[in-house]
Design brief:
alpha/beta, eight-stranded parallel beta sheet, six-stranded mixed beta sheet, about 20% strand
Length: about 525
């Protein structure tokens, strides 16, 4: 049979240890059939890349693609470098285009602004900028919201409203300040209105267009609703889903306000399965985020007036409940991604996995999401228990979120984030994720460059963060290709360029192994299933 496509005159990095390099690819039926120039026929498309560097399409093991697409299309966006004044100016400009009581949503403000946004005066400034409209703005972790007085009113949040389970209504003088932490933000999220099915579909489509521009051809969405599941199903049914997608079904939901979650969601998820969409994981939030002291740690946070000197944070559920959910997922043939940002939640999750493995579920995939802080005693347990480290977002370099964390933890602990070298050396499967839109961009080359240098590749923040934990470039590339594919169960089709796998590859503007500026690497072309999609 004649080939559909032959890619020639290339430097092909396969990310396959048995044959890491080639100079050509032959593609038939959307799959790689050879790492040579073979089977040409009269109708074969020949792509001569002129010596360009080709590698597998990137795999993003942790993003929120639909939320990112929605933000790009429908919301106010600003960077984490925006000051309070910048944010108020942006709100004022956006409000001018809205109706008198129309919602203004967007983000993402820096975690370092938490103290500023905890005051009634800040909320009043937001009210003025928005012209009294309801406003809800998320922070850079997407776990917390800053809202206007009208938003509080529509959500029914008053001085008498108790903190919801898993959330905090930050108060100033006894009244809500406008800052809502974790599950408290869901009270507002539920009244902001929802997208139409067509808008959900367009949000997913737009996100995948952006991902293609950065060479991403496979990803795992770390928390979906039935609206998102339906958007992915309908795209694939129409032949328009140009990516491998793994979805994570929410067991608990402290931040999004999705419905249904838990058992009702698990029971309907399989109806959304298609050729390119696999709803194969559950997602559990086991703690929050360090800057707002909602992550669970073995040792206490720095003392403050609200929490005192012995506050460790807490997990969202006791060990027995976590184990029960993991067993329920495993018995249903589902894998699990569990959000853990503090070392206490990491340990609780690893303990639960040990119990699940002992119950006989030896092949179930488990991912520990984020894992910025891991006690040294727990590092070797990742490999021994078969738990993949989903390292996301790009917090292995100095930046806004690491600075916010440094304000709440002792320096000796805040400076030891993301033990990536230790995990790799221990034999753990390490997979890279952007957590986009927590990361402002899903550009994996920013993450790859940071993994190698432990410093900001663009010079926005000085210094290096725990440089002893740096990886080699080959290791970092594998983290964002084959490592991600293995972690989310896509290694049968993605992650490496080998015969039998999908012809998902990228053409780069440089050979990163010969470049002094890896972080500046740009994608020239992205191919999915043997078709150019960017």
């Amino acid at each position: 049979m004649a080939a559909d496509l032959v890619v020639t005159n290339a430097v092909v990095y396969t990310v396959d240890a048995t044959r890491p390099w080639a100079s050509a690819l032959t593609v038939t039926g959307g799959k790689i059939v050879a790492l040579e120039d073979v089977d040409r026929g009269p109708a074969t498309e020949v792509l001569d890349v002129g010596g360009a560097f080709i590698m597998p399409g990137l795999v993003d093991v942790h993003n929120h693609h639909a939320l990112a697409g929605r933000a790009d299309l429908f919301e106010l966006t600003f960077g984490a470098d925006a000051s309070l004044g910048d944010i108020l100016d942006a709100v004022h400009a956006r409000a001018a285009s809205l109706g008198p009581d129309e919602w203004l949503t967007g983000g993402a403000w820096a975690s370092t602004l938490v103290p500023t946004m905890s005051s009634a005066s800040a909320r009043q400034a937001l009210d003025k900028a928005a012209g009294g409209r309801p406003v809800s703005l998320t922070d850079d972790s997407r776990h917390n919201r800053w809202v206007s007085s009208r938003a509080l009113e529509l959500a029914g949040i008053t001085a008498a409203t108790p903190d919801p389970p898993g959330g905090v209504i930050v108060r100033d003088g006894g009244s809500p300040s406008g800052l809502l932490l974790e599950a408290a933000g869901v009270l507002v999220e539920r009244v902001t209105g929802s997208l139409t099915p067509l808008q959900h579909r367009r949000a997913s489509q737009r996100a995948i267009e952006i991902l293609h521009g950065f060479g991403v051809t496979a990803f795992q969405d770390a928390g979906v609703s039935t609206d998102i599941l339906e958007a992915l199903r309908s795209l694939d049914a129409a032949g328009e889903l140009d990516a491998w997608v793994v979805s994570s079904l929410l067991v608990n939901d402290p931040i999004f306000g999705f419905d249904p979650i838990g058992t009702p969601l698990l029971e309907v998820a399989d109806r959304y399965r298609t050729e390119h969409h696999r709803p194969d994981f559950v997602k559990i939030f086991l703690d929050g985020v360090p800057p707002t002291r909602t992550a669970a740690f073995l040792e206490p946070y720095l003392p403050d007036d609200v929490h005192g000197a012995c506050f460790h944070g807490s997990t969202t559920m006791p060990p027995e409940e976590l184990t029960d959910w993991l067993l329920k997922a495993a018995s249903a043939g589902l894998s699990a991604k569990v959000h853990c940002t503090g070392d206490a939640s990491v340990r609780q999750f690893l303990d639960a996995v040990a119990r699940v493995r002992a119950a006989g579920y030896t092949s179930t995939r488990f991912q520990l999401a984020h894992g910025q802080f891991v006690h040294p005693d727990d590092v070797p347990r990742f490999a021994s228990l078969g738990v993949a480290a989903d390292i996301s977002p790009f917090l292995w370099v100095p930046g806004v979120i690491p600075s916010a964390i440094a304000a709440v933890l002792p320096a000796s602990r805040a400076s030891r984030m993301q033990p990536n070298r230790a995990l790799v050396d221990s034999g753990a499967l390490v997979a890279g994720g952007s957590d986009w839109p927590v990361s402002e961009s899903p550009n994996a080359w920013e993450g790859i460059a940071g993994l190698v240098t432990r410093s900001d590749p663009y010079g926005r923040s000085p210094g290096a963060l725990w440089p002893e934990q740096a990886l080699t470039l080959a290791e970092a590339i594998e983290v964002f290709t084959l490592g991600g594919a293995r972690a989310c169960g896509l290694d049968d089709v993605a992650g490496a360029l080998t015969p039998g796998r999908a012809a998902d590859f990228v053409v780069l503007d440089r050979d990163p192994f010969r470049s002094s500026s890896v972080g500046d690497t740009r994608v020239v072309e992205t191919w999915f299933g043997g078709r150019r999609v960017f």
